[in-house]
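Most newcomers find our protein records easier to grasp once they have seen one. Sequence and backbone structure share a record, each on its own labelled line. Nothing more is needed to start thinking about how sequence determines fold. As an example, a complete record with its sequence and its structure tokens follows.
=====
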Amino acid sequence: MLLTTIALLGACKTYSEDDKNGFDQKISSYAAKKGWNVSKTDSGLFIEQLNEGDGEEVQYESIVFLQYKGKLLSGKTVDQSLPGKPLESKLNGLIAGFQEALLGQKKGAKMRLIIPPQLGYGDEAYGKIPANSILVFELEVVDVK
């Protein structure tokens, strides 16, 4: 699973404000075309909460179990968990965009994330993910330990 390995790589490039503004514009336009009701965080992460959940809350030290599917803005799927086999990972072992989005979420939460490169894989290509990619993830918190 790609998501756990990236914490070791981190986002390598320091992006300029112009870069970040460009990502924001692309993401906002993409979400508007899809009709999604996303909110932008201070870091540049875009989140649409699809279900709040009602179980145990994710803490920084938590182990999370996630069903997810990740795509590029083109629609190409670049990573996904297998049906019925959620990804198991420590929260702090995931990409920054996942860490931010999941912290404080509850078991059963479902969300859509649009992750700019500075919170994802940065300027490094990784597997099917090109460098500087904006990523779209739909995920569900299946369990929290």
